Amino acid sequence: MTTEKLSLQNQKVFDLLSRSKTPLSAYEILDKLRKHGVRSPPTVYRALEKLQQMGLVHRVETLNAFVVCRHVCGKPHGGVSPFAICTSCGAVQELCEPTLARALKKLGAEFLAEVGHKIFEVSGICHACQSKKITHV
Q: Which helix (H) or strand (E) holds 131?
C-alpha cells in the first residue's frame, strides 16, 4: 500500500489513523486535525472516501469508525475486511481469512442476485483485557 499519491489532507487523515490505537470516527478525526488546518466535516469525509477507495482505510461498521488497513498476511481479502472488536478496550484487529470472501459471496448468493457490501465483524473481550480481568479478581 502506497501513500505517495495522497493529497495533503488525505495524508493527514491517513497519518492520524496510522498512529491511533483504536478506530476513530470522522468527527474524532476532525477534532484531532483542527490544529493542523482541517476545519470541515466534508474534508474529512472526502479524505476517508478516497482512502477507502485506495484500500488504505477500512470502515468498522458497528463502531461507525475507521482504521488503517493492516492486512499483513499477503493474501487477497476479496473485498471483505473481517474485524475482531474488543468491547472492553475498543481495540480492533483486522483478521486474515481469504476464504471468508468466497464463503460470504456464496451464502449471500443464495438470497441475493448480486452481493455488494460484505461485512464481517465479531466482538468480545480480547485476550489482554481478559487476562487483566482475571488478575484483578
A: helix 127-135
* Strand (E) or helix (H) holding 65: strand 65-68
Residue 111, CA atoms < 13 Å, CB-side half-sphere = 4
What are the structural domains of the chain? 1-69 (1.10.10.10), 72-137 (3.30.1490.190)
SS3 content of the chain, % helix, strand, coil (to 5): 45, 15, 40
- Cell numbers placing 115: 452481493
Q: pTM of this prediction?
A: 0.81
Cα(48)–Cα(38) distance, integer angstroms: 13
pLDDT digits (tens, 9 = 90+) for 47-96: 999 999 888 999 999 999 999 987 765 565 666 778 999 999 999 998 87
The answer to whether the Cα torsion of 3, 9, 12, 14 is positive or negative is negative
